Amino acid sequence: FASVGKRERLSEKLIDAAVTYNPPRGLILLDPVQTVKVRLRGPDRRIRNLVPYVVDVVVDLADSAPGTLDLHLGPENVLRPEEVEVVSVEPNTLRLRVDREGQRTLPVLPRIVGEPAAGASPLTPAVFPPTAVVAGPQSLISSLASVTTSPISLDGHALTFAQTVPVVSPDPLVRVLEPTTVTVQIPMESP
């Protein structure tokens, strides 16, 4: 004696899934694709309750070398709930640029803004320490001549002053390692 259960209807849903990258140590991804569209199929109750954060596309870059890569995405890249199958991933190929990560010491240039008090004029500012170490893609940091500080306002200043300010990264892929702040001394010349 066997009982036959009612078979649940299948449904499909298209989800914007986040892409997670696993690059090897020492390499950095220059222009990662943040999301892809994943079409999923499964039992109606599973599909209706499906939310984007439970679906993740994982890209393993373990065997990658610097340069441009074309990576195929398939069901094996998609983490998803049980009973749900991958129908398609769009785009199914990602073109990625990978570069070596490097470090470089660069001069810090203060960013001076505003107008001093009447008659006063700023002389050449001094930065302590005068350099900062940055890290990022070698192709990017090799083209940098310097890093800057956040703006330092001269507004209302008539006498020499010093201000501690953050060192600003010129690009989101470049990190300021040390120091993250510098002291800028701005000598002022009175009339």
By secondary-structure content and strand pairing, the structural class works out as mainly beta
Largest sheet: 9 strands, mixed
Give the helix level as a range of percent.
Answer: under 10%
What is the overall silhouette? Answer: elongated
Number of strands: 16
Strand content: over 45%
Rounded mean pLDDT is: 91
Polypeptide structure, described:
This protein is mainly β. Helix content is 5%, strand content 54%.
Short description:
This protein has helices at 44-48, 138-141; strands at residues 10-22, 27-29, 35-43, 56-60, 67-72, 78-79, 85-90, 93-113, 121-122, 126-128, 131-137, 147-153, 161-168, 175-178, 181-186, 188-189. The protein is mainly beta.
How is the topology of this model organized?
Layout: E1 10-22, E2 27-29, E3 35-43, H1 44-48, E4 56-60, E5 67-72, E6 78-79, E7 85-90, E8 93-113, E9 121-122, E10 126-128, E11 131-137, H2 138-141, E12 147-153, E13 161-168, E14 175-178, E15 181-186, E16 188-189
Parallel strand pairs: 1-4, 8-12
Antiparallel strand pairs: 1-3, 2-8, 3-7, 4-6, 5-8, 8-11, 9-16, 10-15, 11-14, 12-13, 13-15
